[in-house]
Automatic annotation (TrEMBL):
Self-association state and partner proteins as the record states: Heterodimer of SoxA and SoxX.
EC class: transferase
Residues that coordinate or bind substrate: R234
Identification of the protein by name: SoxAX cytochrome complex subunit A
KW Glycosyltransferase (keyword) present: no
Signal peptide: none
One Pfam family this sequence matches: SoxA-TsdA_cyt-c
Length: 277
């Protein structure tokens, strides 16, 4: 506590536990928002960021018609059907109905990619298909269809438990690297991800209520931005808040963090598009 307070960052730090509500979407899909942590996890219970938001913000996620992130998901559905590139193909040309072909797929990413010898996330898999299968340009970070299409694909796993297969390729090495980064203190404030999301989860700082920083809702809709926010954008924002230099999107550092942080949320339901403050 002393270390963090002496950073001068927070005027007051107050403990306020996560809510006890249950998240049921459209009165149908019972979401797992609290679950026993996987073996090797430092906490006993894994808790979705949903529990740390205000009642009003939580309510927006219970109804797909009210969830403002669903507009982007619908945009993603249209992109799915849109022909682009020199091959004259759309995603649907090869993958058909996404509610079948993509059901559950987003819950298992990042996955190992043999071709690049690295983990790949949905954003990079989309680019891979655009380049190799459509003859189209890859999306630049957070540009064009990247966020809506990623949200659309992940939304096909709504309610499915996050589960990574760390036995694929070198996934374990990337997990180790991600863990290392998670606990490394950086920036002028000398904070690590773990300082805020492990030691201080459940505390209120300024107008915020610190969660465990899980990745199960991404891309998430942020009310503050009025837009979808990708996972690498969120990581960069958090690193910037420690007043450290932040790595490039899709860099090895952020991919390693994505593997490790996603794993920390194992067993939570995919909430995409989650609604956050
Ligand atoms: C010419 C056919 C073709 C087109 C067009 C195509 N893909 Fe693919 N896609 C594949 C193949 C082949 C694979 C690898 C085999 C597999 O996993 O099904 C793949 C894999 C994927 C996967 C990973 C599936 C998994 O189980 O991990 C996703 C996600 C995906 N594509 C999304 C897209 C999106 C989004 C588009 C449109 C931007 C698209 N694809 C366009 C052929 C295509
Ligand atoms: C100075 C404190 C601080 C540090 C350090 C920090 N974060 Fe955060 N982070 C926040 C705040 C505040 C939020 C928004 C409220 C919440 O969900 O905790 C947030 C949100 C998140 C979320 C979104 C959670 C959700 O449910 O939508 C993720 C993921 C995340 N952080 C990951 C990280 C990672 C990875 C690191 C280290 C690179 C990190 N954070 C470092 C303060 C911090």
């Amino acid at each position: 506590m002393a270390a963090i307070m002496s950073g001068g960052m927070w005027a007051s730090v107050v403990l306020a536990g996560p809510s006890d509500d249950k998240l049921v979407i459209d009165e149908q899909i019972e979401m797992t928002t609290r679950t026993a942590a996987p073996e090797g996890h430092p906490l006993d219970e894994v808790i979705s960021g949903w529990h740390y938001r205000t009642p009003e913000t939580r309510a927006l996620e219970t109804d797909t018609f009210q969830n403002p992130g669903m507009l982007a998901v619908e945009e993603g559905a249209q992109i799915w059907e849109t022909v682009e590139g020199t091959e004259g193909k759309s995603c649907a040309t090869c993958h058909g109905d996404a509610s079948e072909s993509m059901a559950g797929v987003g819950a298992n990413y990042p996955k190992w990619d043999e071709d690049s010898g690295k983990p790949i996330n949905i954003e990079l898999q989309i680019n891979k298909c655009r380049v190799e299968n459509m003859g189209a340009e890859p999306y630049k970070f957070d540009k064009d269809g990247q966020k809506p299409l990623t949200a659309f694909i992940k939304h096909q796993s709504l309610g499915q438990p996050v589960a990574l297969d760390l036995s694929q390729g070198d996934m374990q090495t990337w997990w180790d690297k991600g863990k290392d980064l998670y606990y490394r203190r950086t920036g002028q404030l000398n904070l690590s991800c773990a300082t805020c999301h492990e030691d201080y989860n459940g505390y209120r700082i300024r107008a915020d209520h610190l969660s465990q920083g899980n990745a199960n809702g991404f891309p998430t809709y942020r009310l503050k931005q009025g837009a979808l926010v990708s996972i690498h954008n969120r990581f960069r924002g958090c690193i910037r808040d420690t007043r450290a230099e932040y790595p490039a999107a899709f860099s090895d550092d952020l991919m390693a963090l994505e593997v490790y942080v996603t794993w920390r949320g194992s067993g939570l339901s995919v909430e995409t598009p989650a609604v956050r403050q």
